[in-house]
Amino acid sequence: xxxxxxxxxxxxxxxxxxxxxxxxxxxxxxxxxxxxxxxxxxxxxxxxxxxxxxxxxxxxxxxxxxxxxxxxxxxxxxxxxxxxxxxxxxxxxxxxxxxxxxxxxxxxxxxxxxxxxxxxxxxxxxxxxxxxxxxxxxxxxxxxxxxxxxxxxxxxxxxxxxxxxxxxxxxxxxxxxxxxxxxxxxxxxxxxxxxxxxxxxxxxxxxxxxxxxxxxxxxxxxxxxxxxxxxxxxxxxxxxxxxxxxxxxxxxxxxxxxxxxxxxxxxxxxxxxxxxxxxxxxxxxxxxxxxxxxxxxxxxxxxxxxxxxxxxxxxxxxxxxxxxxxxxxxxxxxxxxxxxxxxxxxxxxxxxxxxxxxxxxxxxxxxxxxxxxxxxxxxxxxxxxxxxxxxxxxxxxxxxxxxxxxxxxxxxxxx
Length: 415
Prior knowledge:
By secondary structure, the chain is mostly beta strands. The protein is built from 1 helix and 27 strands. The two termini are 43 Å apart. The relative contact order is 0.05.
């Protein structure tokens, strides 16, 4: 806190039989400036509250060390709040306005929110409502041009509605109910629609996600015509697993830009299954990709993965539209147990990986690059290689070579 400076603080008032009359409340620091005035009823029968508070952010820079970041700033920030009514039905309302927030990799152009609620007799809040709208937001490699959120709390549950405009072609809308308890929180999805480019996804039926000592997904099914995304089951770090998720004919063109893969097209079908005890989980999965780069056919990927008894295995086949193929198969030791009674050494366990191809075109990876940064990848890969031995002492043998490798990069404009 050595970067935060309190320049002045003053409070004047009187306390009379449970009614605190605040004549002046002023705080000035290098972080914020605030002032308030008005009565606050602390006890039943003491009268009625009518207290107003206004605060304005001066600078967030002094909080950088406390927040553990070198990137924290806010152009403007204002808060207004009003507390009123008798203690047994004390209410509050207010507004928050922000502009130009930067925190690490997050950028927010502006946001406004209003709130109101009522204090509870047996708990801090009996009711609360928040309505907010944000402008351009960039965080976690995702961007949104506009976000609107409404939340209502009734003392036990929160009803939350969100409308997120990602860009001109992508919009997500959701209505949920959040039920917190002492040992878990359940998110009930009542409505979910997602317009992602040419696709219009929607929730087939209400679903729920529970987070607690175990993680449970009940009947999550999104559809758009023949496209399906489905998940159901439980992942229990201390118990038994029974979880399945699947994709069916999912077009990648609408989803890929959200993952930073704007050039990726084609479709995906796959399935993963997790079973077994937390101390000995069993996992298997398949994935079939039909890859396209900006609507140009590239090739396919068939992938099988599995895990059991401290060993992870894969069998992958990458096929190019010109008929060439690259195969990779084998297994490596891995400790993916959700609960381990005792540590296990993997260094003496065997490793087996084999890769084979003849003049496999490198432009198979085109869809995974942003066409604005890397284009027209050329060259071929020839390989007959293997890894054997143990995890602690692997042995590499065989050959691998690349011929004619190249790519086009966009010009860098300098002034």
